[in-house]
């Protein structure tokens, strides 16, 4: 069962999302929060698999709530998916850097919402390569942190190759086929890269791949 925490200051939107998700046999909405501070309390209480978090909220916004969730070891299993009205913008990019697994536009089709929750629960990033390129190209204004560059050097050639392929949008199965390895080995390479780079989600691996130059933002 995929456990979901809904975080938005609009009760009507929360009700709508709950109605869509609760009818699924494998998804359960365990709690709702109206701001980021309440979200942190409920996340620690319920330990959801997914937190659907609005960016703009009172008390504590979605970006800071994401950052605090990502920094809390007790919430390591919580995948944050950002909700936005505006699609690609600087807030989305900063949320991804803060630790979000991806983002969804609030007018998403019901079937796509359910699919996205399942994808995020598997630990996959909700980031199409084309979207990632636009975000990185538009909003990266500072160099990659020195410690991250140092950690990149710790990656083996195979781990580095899996990160590049992941950033280009390939799934575990596609990465395995490209590298002539098993999907389990591909997943192991990705998990080891995440550990070495001190990131909690594949989305952060994708961002680092573009920021570091492993994959060029304008690459086709």
UniProtKB/TrEMBL annotation:
Q: Which PROSITE patterns match?
A: HTH_LUXR_2 (PS50043), RESPONSE_REGULATORY (PS50110)
Asked if the keyword Membrane belongs to this entry, the reply reads no
Q: Which GO terms describe its molecular function?
A: DNA binding
Annotated positions of the 4-aspartylphosphate modification: 54
Domain of life per record: Bacteria
Question: For the HTH luxR-type domain, which residue ranges apply?
Answer: 148-213
Domain named Response regulatory is located at: 3-121
Which InterPro entries is this protein grouped with? CheY-like_superfamily, NreC/VraR/RcsB-like_REC, Sig_transdc_resp-reg_C-effctor, Sig_transdc_resp-reg_receiver, Tscrpt_reg_LuxR_C, WalR-like
Alphabetically list the UniProt keywords.
DNA-binding, Phosphoprotein, Transcription, Transcription regulation
Q: What's the short name of a Pfam family annotated to this entry?
A: Response_reg
Is the keyword Transcription in the record? yes
Report what the protein is called: DNA-binding response regulator
* Species of provenance: Micromonospora andamanensis
């Amino acid at each position: 069962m995929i456990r979901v925490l809904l975080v938005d200051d609009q009760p009507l939107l929360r009700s709508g999302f709950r109605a869509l998700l609760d009818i699924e046999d494998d998804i359960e909405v365990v709690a709702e929060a109206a701001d980021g501070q309440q979200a942190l309390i409920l996340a620690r209480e319920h330990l959801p698999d997914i937190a659907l978090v609005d960016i703009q909220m009172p008390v504590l916004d979605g970006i800071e709530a994401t950052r605090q969730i990502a920094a809390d070891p007790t919430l390591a299993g919580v995948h944050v998916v950002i909700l936005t009205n505006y699609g690609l913008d600087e807030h989305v990019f900063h949320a991804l850097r803060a630790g979000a697994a991806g983002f969804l536009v609030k007018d998403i089709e019901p079937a796509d919402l359910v699919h996205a929750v399942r994808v995020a629960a598997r630990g996959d990033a909700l980031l199409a390569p084309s979207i990632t390129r636009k975000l990185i190209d538009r909003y990266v204004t500072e160099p990659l942190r020195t410690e991250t560059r140092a950690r990149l050097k710790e990656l083996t050639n195979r781990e580095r190759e899996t990160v590049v392929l992941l950033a280009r949008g390939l799934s575990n199965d596609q990465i395995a086929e490209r590298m002539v390895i098993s999907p389990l080995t591909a997943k192991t390479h990705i998990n080891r890269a995440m550990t070495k780079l001190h990131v909690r989600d594949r989305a952060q691996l994708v961002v680092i791949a573009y920021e570091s130059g492993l994959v060029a933002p304008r690459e086709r």
